[in-house]
Amino acid sequence: MKKTHAKLTAILSATALFFVLFSANASAHVTVSPSSSAPGSWETYSIKIPSEKDLPTTKVALKVPEGFDFKQYRPVPDWEVELTKDEAGRITTVSWSAEKDGIGPGEFQKFEFVGKNPDREANLAWDAFQYYSDGSIVEWTGEADSDKPHSITVITNDPEAGTTLTPGHDHHDTASDSGSQSNALDTGSKDTSSAAAPDKAKTTATAEQPSGRIATVIASVALILSAAALILAIRKSKR
């Protein structure tokens, strides 16, 4: 009987650990903040990059949504910034490349930049590309219900627009037009000419990302399994 309890406790503990680790990975996304802003305003944005693999992130490239006028960035020690422009001189891609170790496993980094929002209401879709030291690239370019969603900033005159967002995510209920560019990425040297064609307009229709709900459910299951494993361990120690 004791052996059965020991095996069951070990299984429950391992399962709980798996769910905890999976939950943490499912909720980690590359995100751009703020999630809402006013039309025509100058805004300070930040992009947050967590490193999800057991490898350092060495580079991040962010596509600038159509209609957004990128102006300045905050320099960060040990990171080189490259600005890619189109033929009209508009900045279309911003890339941050690590000059040293990059973003290690279990770490995250933030980069800030300033720009002018479109003059009309719209959705700004921030496509991001995360490069790891082994050469692999994670493309954060999907819709809200995908495994790798891009962040959305809603440009709106509604002051309550950002209150329905799920904490930690940047997607939100809206039927506004959105501007997004294609996944084709040109990250050459500074001021390189690039003509990236924009995608068709995209919309989101979710007040909470499915990935956020999944992470919450997984975390709850992990908590229940951990409690069950603890109770079995206590009962075993009393016998």
From TrEMBL:
Record's compositionally biased regions (Low complexity): 190-207
UniProt cross-references to Gene3D superfamilies, sorted A to Z: Uncharacterised protein YcnI-like PF07987, DUF1775
Coiled-coil ranges per UniProt: none
Signal peptide: 1-28
Biased composition (Polar residues): 176-186
One Pfam family hit: DUF1775
Keywords: Membrane, Signal, Transmembrane, Transmembrane helix
Span list, region Disordered: 142-209
TM helices/strands, residue ranges: 214-234
Domain YncI copper-binding: 29-147
Name assigned to this protein: YncI copper-binding domain-containing protein
